[in-house]
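Dissemination and training. As part of the outreach component of the grant, students in the summer workshop were shown how a complex can be specified as a set of sequence lines and then modelled as a single object. The example used during the hands-on session is reproduced here so that future cohorts can follow it. Participants entered these lines:
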Amino acid sequence: MEYKLKIPLQQHIGAPCKPVVSAGERVKKGQLIAAPEKLGANIHASLSGVVTAVTGEYIEIEPDKEQPEDYVPIKETSSMLEAIKEAGIVGMGGAGFPTHVKMDVDLQGGTVIANGVECEPLLSHNVRQMEQNPEIVYRGLKYAMQITNASRGYIAIKAKNKKAVEAMKSVIDDPRIEVREMPDIYPMGEERALVREILGQLLRPDQLPSAARAVISNVETLSRICEAVEKRKPVISKNVTVIGRLKSGRQARVFFDVPIGTPIAELIEKAGGFEGDFGEIIMGGPFTGKAVDLDCVVTKTTGGIIVTDPLPREKRKAGLLVCGCGANEARLREVAEKMGACVAGVERCKQVVDVKGGIKCENPGNCPGQAEKILKLKKMGADVLIVGTCSDCTNTVMGVAPKLKLPVYHHTDHVLRTVGHPLVRRLKK
Ligand code: SF4
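and obtained this result:
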């Protein structure tokens, strides 16, 4: 192997883990290399090799050329919850919340929802996993129901992903569990949107699904639970979608079990390599992903690597419309700057509220109407809009902005244009 692994000490919500290995030490694939002191999740070597550096941020490993098929199993535990903790499982849909903490609840007959919505456009590793290996997701869901004392299980999938819907239905042998088909709008996979759609209860932005006696877990997370329980396997790899401006074409490629700590440059090379000049490399999906540098690495929460076309140039003054589930102010300012536009003003969708230092939407994906905000941005001097809004709200933006002669960019435009995906604009009902 030509590259080194750089395994971050923080791949989860909480505090960074403390290394338990030193530079020069030989480590085996699956060996524990860092453990949390506070809220966090164990970190294991994703490949066998020699530790070449330990810093406050990461552990670097030079992998051996020959890698074993097997791994160091997690130690024997007295419960499934302990196995999840030992395996270092976190929310692999992107949230990164330690799963052993999330699952440590008594739902008293409540509900576990397997989140297979994959609501960001372009990403397809969750859908592919359900199509190719529905069993592992299903068994993970059953373990999660057992751990949390739930009596209902749902698997949420967009109705358009017919193959995944059929594959999941084909393995269900328990009348307490069913597939729920979801519409193809953003942000259908948001936790509170799922609780609202499936259980009919709208939670406040500061409430967790547990307030509705529910736990929501991404389908890859459930598959890792299954691996930890049945195979004593720690989290040492991640499923990732790579897509965009690549020599091999612009269709999505799914890589299963990419070792944690793999440089994204390596993964892009494996997917065919860059095609000409690119605009951004986005880690995550078009709506909530971050623009990153090439020296970034795959972590437990990396879902997508997207290589985009260059951003369009725009010299007019831009008004920014912030969303609680899509682009926040920092991301919209970054997009405006990369386009060359100066910012005339910033407004938030009126359903955006502050929660614990971040922002959230009061009712994800149900538009409150954007006319007032757009008029305000025009008054501030905006000649164009850059919006980060959900599908439903973009629909109403498009009902107002053209009448005021305000051209609209969505912050996902350059990303979606790269692969010929329809832009986020007016939804066809
Ligand atoms: S309603 Fe507003 S804040 Fe909520 S998801 Fe839509 S644009 Fe974002």
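The chain has twelve helices and 22 strands. Students were then asked to discuss how this feature might be tested experimentally.
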